[in-house]
Amino acid sequence: MLSSSESSGFCLTEILDNLDCTDLLHSLDGGVLLLDAQCRIIFCNRWFCRHTGFAESTILGQTLNQLFPGQLPLPLHDAIETACYQRMGRILSYQLHKRLLPLKRRTPSGELQPLHQSILIKPLSQSELTLVQCLDITNAVKREQHLRAGERILKLERKVLELIATGDSFDTVLDEICSTVEQLIPNAATAIMLLDESGDQLRIKSAPGFPPSFTRREDTLQLGASLTTCTRAMQQRTLAVTPDIQQDESWQLWSDTAERLQIAACWAQPILAAYDEVVGVFACYPQTSGTPSEPERQLLQRMAHLTAIALERHRRMERIRFLAMHDPLTGLPNRSLLNEHLGRNLRRARRENQQFALMFIDLDGFKQINDQHGHDAGDDLLSVLAGRMTEQLRGTDTCARIGGDEFVVMLETVQSPESAGMVATKILRCLSTPVQRGQLSLQVSASIGIALYPHDGISADALLTRADDAMYQAKARGKNCWFRLD
Question: How far apart are CA 33 and CA 42, in angstroms?
Fold first, then answer.
């Protein structure tokens, strides 16, 4: 009679003897092949059929070389022959051998992607068979790739932030941001588009990977026009994707341009500034059609955020520079900016042998306005008169406020003293016209002194002094007139 332990051992042995090992091999989450002494496949599990796309009947009886003609790397070919003929096993790891069997795996979205693998090749003892075991390490490889990509992104982000912190030019920072994405998304070009001052039009500010012709492609992109990828991103305030430009109706006008530039898709990420203000779009143009992966989506979001940081700093620096170079009341250039423009115009006039005019303007009766109606009324009057003077000038001329009621006008070029006098007369007329402030009618006049380069001086100080002296002569002559010293 058998003991209980003996009975249990007998039952286990019986179960193992009756177990079909092929069912076990088919259930494995990895590929299994058995090769005979001539390297021919005599068994393959379902995993191997599924990831090669071949039926079992096609695989059996074939060598791996016959199954994948011209596709086996030399180390794998040598390892199989060594195992089958010389009975020596080997492990081929992905770390050392990036390309082994040309296997594919299907993603949840149905897309076929390369299957990364490590392979064990082991001759079986007491037989002429060789086991080939294939391990799918795609997920591990992707995790490692994501970690490395994350490290690269952090390194490149740090570089961009250093450029922002050290005050590099805005254009340089934007080009670096575009280049960062182009390094991390192979075979793709990028562009940064920002809203113009009107807020109705996107203009390309950086597109280092594109020829100038592309810049003209969306240089006049109206937000109210047809919904392109970029305008969709602006309006929906989220990533907009055009997987295939040639199949998208909104790209019909530019499909030829896209084909010439070898761009197949467009991914547009809105750029959000402070208070969630949409200020532009970060656009990526891959050379192959498709949608961005999750890491690529995150990359576009991070680069758009960096662009917003750079833009905010640029705006602040521009505001600081404006305040440093302009009169806060009238918005006109101050003495510092006047000196900068005057110095530049002196160099130009010497180089081109041209003459220009400088006018020193002092308001007559302004103190009485302040005394009678208060400084608020005086400030309002100055703001209106500053605008009137600017309207009499060309875009290349300069009107600066250098004191309480003192202004300097620089006419960049003049043909003759008479032409400078004509502009002075227009300025006198506009300044003497009353300004209505509620029920009050505020009126002043002006005295203007004119100096011409090079007749009245060849330096900034000499011209300003000459124009100042001429202005006092105008006051002495009864005010509300202009004068030029002989």
Answer: 8
Query: CA–CA separation, 206 vs 161, rounded Å?
Result: 17
pTM over 0.85: no
44 close to 59: Cβ distance less than 8 angstroms: yes
Query: With 0-12 CB in 10 A as exposed, 13-18 as middle and 19+ as buried, what is 143?
Result: exposed
pLDDT in tens, 64-91: 999 999 899 999 999 999 999 999 999 9
CATH superfamily of 335-484: Reverse transcriptase/Diguanylate cyclase domain (3.30.70.270)
How is 8-62 classified by DSSP, letter by letter? HHHHHHHHHHH--HHHHHHHSSSEEEEE-TTSBEEEE-HHHHHHH---HHHHTT-
CA distances to 171, 225, 310, 314, 453 from 166, in Å: 14, 39, 11, 12, 40
CATH of 12-136 given 3.40.960.10, 3.30.450.20, 3.40.50.360, 3.30.365.10: 3.30.450.20
Question: What Å distances lie between residue 143 and 139, 150, 293, CA to CA?
Answer: 6, 10, 14
